[in-house]
Amino acid sequence: MKRISLKLKLTLLYTFFMALLTCAALAILFSLSSREVLSSAQVRLEGRVQESVENVVSRGDGLRVDSDFYSVVQDVYLSLYDSNLYFLYGRVPHGFSQQPELSDGELRTIQDGGREWYVYDISCPVSEDRTVYIRGITSVTDAEESFTVTVRFALILLPLMVLATAVIGYRFTRRTLLPVRRMTDTVQKIRADKDLSRRIGLTDGRKDAAEKCAAAGRDAAEKPGAAGKDAAVGNGRRRARDEIYVLGRTFDEMLDELEETFRREQQFTSDASHELRTPVSVILAQCDAMLAEGDRYGEEQRSQIGLIRRKAAEMAEMISQLLFLSRADQGRQPLNREEIDLSELTAMIAEEQQMLADADGRAIRVETDIAPDIRAYVDETLYIRMLGNLLSNAMTYSREGGRITITLRQDADMVTGSVKDEGAGIAADALPRIWERFYQADNSRTKGGHSGLGLSMVKWIAEAHGGGITAESEEGKGSTFTFHFPQNKKM
Question: How far is 286 from 312, CA to CA, in rounded Å?
Fold first, then answer.
């Protein structure tokens, strides 16, 4: 299952609990309201009947009923009966056909016509020897239906409320997590660009306001009295209130320290390499001079001097690579791009490597599959260095009588080349790490005095030209390194 984002998780959690609380509140409210509706209908009925007593007045042998007696107020119908249940005046609601017995002061519930009714009777003495009864009738079903409409309306509004809660919650969560997103973007850019000078800078947009706030806090703290202290403390609390901004500031401080550490390391590498070049050059020069005096030294001594010279040459090459990578890290490695016939240049490099392979005596063949007339804007020196390193590695790790294949193709505006060997190959667990400096795998990076810097340099050259390089390998079957870069991209 695909992982969902933290924003969506928080929104769903917030919406779930809000919907749960809303449903619980509505359930309790509806439960109480249902009873309240029925209780209110009963109170209205009793009140209306009791108030109507004033509308019935005795006049001689007859009765006078006020016109309000005939009015339907609050859904209550009034009717007047004598003690024998003979109808005198008033109104009876449509649908109520029963004629229940009179019951003074008793509220009754009667089913009639598929509906439920409240009936309330009260006696009204109009003379010493005559008593009449006022009956009030109201529909319980109508009251419940009115409440049902309210419930349905609430149920229609509930999904809208949940949706509004989800939208508001998502926007609020997204706004709250924007600093986290900014941290993530910054870290991803640092990883992609290898640029430790980038900062999260969550307080950049509020720098002036923060400085004013801090200045106001300092001024208030310097003033005597509690007000100054309170203001200073309040400003401090406001600055420290948001943990995410504190985290962002901590990240920036950590990046400052890391950048300074890497800067010192790069400076040390550069300085040490520069300092080592002179003594190594002297060693090489002295070895050449001693080897030039052929009659002065014996065969064993010449062999030992030759060994010293080979190791010094390896040291010189390592120092050269360290200086190259140090300048690249510091952004001081120039890239002099010009339009070059890569097909011709690649063929020349292949011929040179074939001569070196013939001199090595291992019968290694260098074959080419180069498309003609491929031209691109590259730094010629760096391209030669990149391809030379790849071919040198291929020759070092190829078996005797093996074959190295160089290909070069152009697809639209992209140039793609590869160097394939039939050597020992690279272990699957070591393959992702071969681009690391000084990394050596047991069967792929330890031969021929290789320092483990060549592939790091190759990777930088390919990326500096706006492209990249990948490696495929299988132990015992060889490796293939494929590089690519734009044909016409000028940098």
Answer: 11
